[in-house]
Amino acid sequence: MSTANPKEFTGRKMLLVMLSFFGVIITVNFYMAYSAVSTFPGLEVENSYVASQEFNQRAAAQRALGWSIEFTREGDELVLNLQDRDGVEVIPASISAVLGRPTFSGDDITLDFRLVGNEYRAQAELAPGPWRLFLDAVAQDGTLYKKRMHLVVDE
Predict the structure, then answer these.
(1) What whole-number distance in Å separates Cα of residue 96 and Cα of residue 41?
(2) Closest by alpha carbon to 87, among 116, 112, 57, 66?
(3) Residues 99-140: tens digit of each pLDDT
(4) Which residue, among 124, 122, 128, 133, has the nearest Cα to 153 in the 3D structure?
(5) Which positions ≥6 away from 91 have C-beta within 8 Å?
(6) N or C: less crowded end of the chain, CB within 10 Å?
């Protein structure tokens, strides 16, 4: 009968186990940090202090317009209805919009709204999931109206 000599667990083996264990953890952490930074869409404003000082004035001017917006989706078209506080359709001097994902700017779409009757329509083929619409409209008197709206596509 022969007896097998068990291999010793030496300090060198322990060092290799520890280096492998922490090497995997550090590698995963670097990958996660790189992924987070590389998909960050960027700054909202250049100087947050200046933006905060102007916010109340812009908000008051926007409230004075009294506009309300209804945003819907009909097939591959997005439909905007703009009305004043009396329920009369509003036709702004200009309108621009960007539709994008909440966390990834790579899917951003600049919408080309056209006036059809009393509503604005834009083509947009959207994949399922959450979307955000950033709308900028300029009133006939030059007042800027900004609105951020959310949309979830279920299909």
Answers:
(1) 19
(2) 66
(3) 988 877 778 889 999 998 888 999 988 888 899 999 999 999
(4) 128
(5) 82, 115, 140
(6) N
